[in-house]
Design brief:
The protein has about 140 residues and is mainly α. Helix content is about 85%, strand content about 0%.
């Protein structure tokens, strides 16, 4: 099997895990709701998690971390994790109406828990993307 096909196959577990986690949290968030809400929420959360994973995997780590500019990696990584991705997630949740909170509730103290959760999800997926790339590079060098 060639390297490109092997590399693609190595990404399948990341996709399966992301979709399963997204479905699990979506189904848990909408007990007794129509399946269309669960599917939509699963798609939004999967996009969010895989977007975080692949931004670190494809851009931040190769360009900045292994490219020699670690300060920019940490700066852009923190901006992405703390501001950009949670904002995109909130907008997606509002646009798809899969959130139980209104915009004003999300911006209040009540919205702190979903924000903290979104930062955690983004951070975990970003770290996994970075580790995945670094481990693959190490494997190919060995």
């Amino acid at each position: 099997m060639d390297k490109k096909r092997t590399l693609i196959l190595l990404h399948i577990p990341a996709w399966v895990i992301a979709i399963f986690i997204a479905w699990f949290f979506s189904a848990d968030s909408f007990p007794g709701m129509r399946s269309s809400y669960v599917v939509l929420s699963t798609l939004v959360l999967s996009f969010w998690m895989l977007g975080s994973f692949y931004l670190f995997y494809s851009y931040l780590v190769p360009k900045f971390l292994t490219g020699g500019n670690r300060r920019l990696f940490w700066l852009y990584g923190l901006i992405f994790v703390l501001i950009i991705m949670p904002t995109i997630g909130v907008v997606l949740l509002l646009l798809t109406k899969t959130s139980a909170l209104t915009l004003s509730e999300m911006l209040s103290a009540q919205g702190l828990l979903p924000y903290t959760g979104s930062v955690f999800i983004t951070l975990v997926c970003g770290v996994l993307g970075a580790l995945y790339l670094l481990l693959l590079r190490r494997y190919h060098r060995a």
